[in-house]
Amino acid sequence: MNRVELFSKIAGVFLCVFFMFLPHEFQAVEYLLFGAVLILVGIPHGAIDHLTSNPEIDKKGLFKFLILYISLISIYLIAWIYIPVTALVAFILMSAYHFGQTHFINRHVKNKLKSLLHISRGLYFLIVILAGDLVLTSAILKPIVTIPDVSPSYILFPLLVITATIQWFSSIKFSRSDFIELLILAPILYLSPLMISFIVYFGFWHALPSMTSEYTYLKKYKKYNTFRKFGKQLLPFSLISIVGIAIILVIGVRYLEKNELFLLFFILISIISFPHILYMDKFWDKITNTARY
């Protein structure tokens, strides 16, 4: 873990603790932090999938890439329209797998257990975040699914045991970071406001480490070998995504209730994340020299 990641994670933990005690009337500050992290690292880390897929991509290759990328987005959007429950479950599982990968960057995982380990670790943290404010989570997802009123401990403790057991069977030594994340970070995320816990985990435990790995990989090429050059590559598709989402949300403000707007935002993020998750899976395999499972 480099210093930037370390300091960002420490800052993220302090932000969570700070927002635990911030009065509800200051919720606008939550939105401001959420938007800042999303714009600075959240969306940009997925804006160079074409380069992590092929650093030497030409115009023809980029055109083919965009056609496939947009097709995948369209397919998933159709799924949200016609089979929303299936789309929701699929997104949670894909996100769990995707987030779980970043907990094991540069750590060898046995291929047979890799998928289970990634899904279990990411799912544990996702459920921690969603269960931390079950009332708001239920209100946001109400148009799609009704969440049972059960004690979070009945779900979280078994998930913790499962992901720890899978790691043990994977012969991956439990590091200090593992214990801190599972036993200290998780309760802090659980007790934090939903938006803050999500953006801290997403931004500092997933997006930033992913972006660091992307930069490490691409800086071997002259076109991207400085952070300034790398940053320029992030801008085009980041701006397109940010502006597109902003326009849709501005229009949505006129017609949707607050929780419906949250759900719309969640769906928008999911449809642009779908192809990103697929391409990043190939990227992780490429940089770790492991076979697909």
In short:
With 293 residues, this protein is mostly helical.
What do you see in this structure?
It is a single chain. The protein is mainly α and 293 residues long. The protein has one domain (3-288). It is built from 12 helices and no strands. The mean pLDDT is 91.
What number is the mean pLDDT? 91
Shape: globular
The SSE order reads HHHHHHHHHHHH
Instruction: Give the distance, in angstroms, between the N- and C-terminal Cα atoms.
Output: 26 Å
**Structural class computed from helices and strand pairing:** mainly alpha
Major sheet size, sense and barrel closure: none
Topology:
Elements: H1 3-20, H2 27-42, H3 49-53, H4 59-82, H5 84-101, H6 111-132, H7 134-141, H8 153-169, H9 176-191, H10 194-218, H11 227-255, H12 258-288
Distinctive features:
single chain, 0% strand
